[in-house]
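Bumping my old thread because nobody answered last time. Still need a sequence for this structure:
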């Protein structure tokens, strides 16, 4: 549409926008640009550069708040292979809040840093904005304006700032009509004043009333660039501390108190998907409350936690089991049945010296926290009888999950846990009906004496290794840790209610499977491990504190035969590769050779 303007000002042509419009809010009477209708009664292509620093004299008298800065687009995003330069692509939006049409001729625009350093200014030509209407001002020559820009100020204001913020000021002579600071600039997304309220010159002074444009709530006005130029902004979630909207009515939020939320299951080390997307933990709700302000965190890192924030009340009821995860994407998160919230920190497998942990806080108060010293692909879950914020602090009431979910990992995210076999207190075990302290191996008494790396059958079921108690006194296998240096898995702990003694001169067997039909008819297996033995690799046994008791490194391994330590070299110092040889005695179904849990033969 072409309209006559002042003869001193060029005529401009209003262009319709290609994207769909949203319905107007109850407080706005402007026409929608997306329908191709003019939002301006008259428009100007823009003035040339203003070389002076004196403010302009406005053609029409204005009061503070008559014109309001409502949106800023400071950093353009470009499709892959294209330029991301901001020249000609920056803009900001203003709103006529005066109640009548306003001609902006003579209005001075100043762009500077928030502390008013590095100022640039532009004095506007004729541009009439109707009551309740918007204008979009861009850093582009008037004749090159895209459809979403109403007025071009060329390069007069300099570049809008991508970092450390900027300030836009509108004034008539020395009267400030509005000013707004913008910050937290992200490529391809405008900063918007809350679209749930009429733009207001005092409201836009509060950074809490601004938010980043989103692909879901805004318009892709240019490829990979989102905002609402000339349109109602999206509704920001304006957070009021201690308050939330319950069906449109603001009320005080109901905070969690210690014990109201209980951590009941954690998955620090998924096996079916990557840790970066597949980690999760479960929280059981013990009282009706609101999650607004709840912080998901780790005590064991230096990063701030992830706070759950929303304008709406995040209400949950007693008995609900919530799942917090690294990703909403079912493919990435291992097909979790539900995700109630996201966290960004990394969960760790944990060790005795550096435990993994998760904690919940609200308003600085600890609601619940747990720690663990080892984990593997199954989730760790608390016994349902101990699902409270005090009892779940005891390591003995946690166990590995056994129920498959989603992509094949084991756990019960969002559902009741299975009962655990409750372990004795740390450092204790049951000797028949008697609870006694675990007897750990003394230094030098535990020696790795044989290992099967490449069995004739399935490696994941038929790999094993043997240790021997070369001392006189019995020791227990309880709380030992089995490990490979050359992998990324955490050590596997030997967990048992019953004491697992090994007499002086006796052997113990660790294997991938306890099922005779799968493991080639091995003798009774004392404990299992989940890491792979490789042809050029290593393995080690650690005590409960992570100190190494014995380790073996090898550069090659025979097929279908174990490597066994020469009986004359059965010591920690002697368990080096040169003292091992290939086994020659068949066992099981006679397809593999070795002497599992029995004395080795002399090496040649």
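Sorry it took so long. Here it is:
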């Amino acid at each position: 549409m072409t309209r006559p303007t002042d003869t001193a000002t060029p005529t401009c042509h209003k262009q319709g926008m290609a994207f769909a419009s949203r319905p107007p809010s109850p407080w706005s009477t402007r026409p929608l640009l997306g329908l191709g209708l003019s939002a301006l009664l008259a428009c100007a292509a823009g003035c040339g550069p203003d070389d002076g620093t004196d403010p302009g004299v406005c053609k029409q008298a204005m009061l503070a708040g008559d014109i309001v800065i409502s949106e800023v687009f400071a950093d353009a995003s470009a499709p892959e292979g294209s330029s991301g330069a901001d020249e000609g692509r920056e803009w900001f939006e203003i709103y006529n809040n005066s109640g009548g049409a306003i001609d902006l001729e003579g209005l001075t625009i100043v762009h500077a840093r928030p502390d008013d350093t590095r100022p640039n200014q532009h004095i506007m030509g004729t541009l009439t904005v109707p009551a309740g209407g918007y204008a979009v001002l861009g850093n582009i020559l008037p004749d090159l304006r895209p459809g979403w820009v109403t007025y071009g100020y060329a390069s007069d204001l300099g570049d809008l700032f991508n970092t450390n913020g900027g300030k836009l000021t509108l004034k008539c002579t020395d009267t400030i009509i509005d000013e707004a600071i913008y910050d937290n600039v992200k490529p391809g997304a405008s900063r918007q004043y809350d679209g749930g309220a009429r733009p207001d010159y005092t409201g836009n002074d509060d950074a809490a009333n601004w938010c980043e444009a989103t692909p879901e709530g805004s318009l892709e006005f240019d490829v990979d660039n989102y905002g609402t130029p000339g349109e109602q902004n999206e509704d920001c979630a304006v957070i009021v501390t201690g308050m939330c909207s319950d069906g449109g009515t603001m009320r005080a939020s109901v905070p969690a108190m210690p014990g109201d939320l209980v951590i009941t299951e954690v998955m620090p080390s998924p096996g079916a998907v990557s840790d970066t997307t597949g980690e999760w933990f479960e929280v059981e709700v013990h009282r009706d409350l609101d999650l607004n302000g709840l912080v998901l965190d780790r005590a064991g890192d230096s990063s701030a936690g992830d706070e759950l924030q929303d304008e709406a009340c995040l209400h949950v009821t007693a008995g609900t089991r919530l799942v917090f995860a690294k990703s909403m994407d079912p493919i990435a998160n291992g097909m979790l049945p539900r995700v109630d919230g996201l966290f960004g920190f990394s969960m760790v497998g944990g060790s005795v010296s550096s435990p993994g942990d998760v904690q919940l806080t609200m308003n600085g108060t600890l609601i619940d926290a747990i720690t663990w010293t080892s984990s593997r692909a199954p989730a760790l879950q608390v016994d349902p009888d101990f699902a409270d914020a005090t009892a779940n602090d005891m390591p003995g009431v946690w166990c590995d999950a056994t129920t498959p979910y989603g992509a094949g990992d084991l756990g019960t995210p969002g559902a009741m846990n299975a009962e655990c076999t409750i372990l004795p207190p740390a450092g204790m075990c049951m000797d028949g009906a008697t609870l006694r302290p675990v007897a750990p191996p003394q230094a030098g008494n535990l020696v790795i004496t044989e290992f099967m790396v490449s069995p004739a059958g399935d490696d994941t079921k038929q790999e094993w290794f043997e240790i021997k108690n070369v001392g006189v006194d019995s020791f227990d296998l309880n709380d030992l840790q089995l490990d490979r240096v050359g992998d990324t898995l955490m050590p596997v702990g030997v967990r048992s209610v019953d004491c697992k003694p090994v007499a002086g001169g006796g052997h113990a067997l660790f294997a991938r499977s306890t099922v005779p039909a799968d493991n080639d008819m091995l003798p009774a297996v004392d404990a299992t491990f989940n890491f792979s033995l490789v042809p050029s690799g290593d393995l080690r046994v650690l005590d409960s504190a992570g100190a190494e008791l014995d380790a073996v490194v090898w550069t090659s391994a025979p097929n279908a035969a174990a490597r066994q330590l020469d009986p004359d070299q059965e010591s920690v110092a002697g368990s080096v590769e040169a003292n091992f040889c290939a086994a020659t005695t068949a066992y099981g179904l006679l397809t593999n050779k070795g002497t599992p849990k029995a004395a080795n033969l002399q090496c040649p």
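The chain has a mean pLDDT of 88. Let me know if any region looks off to you.
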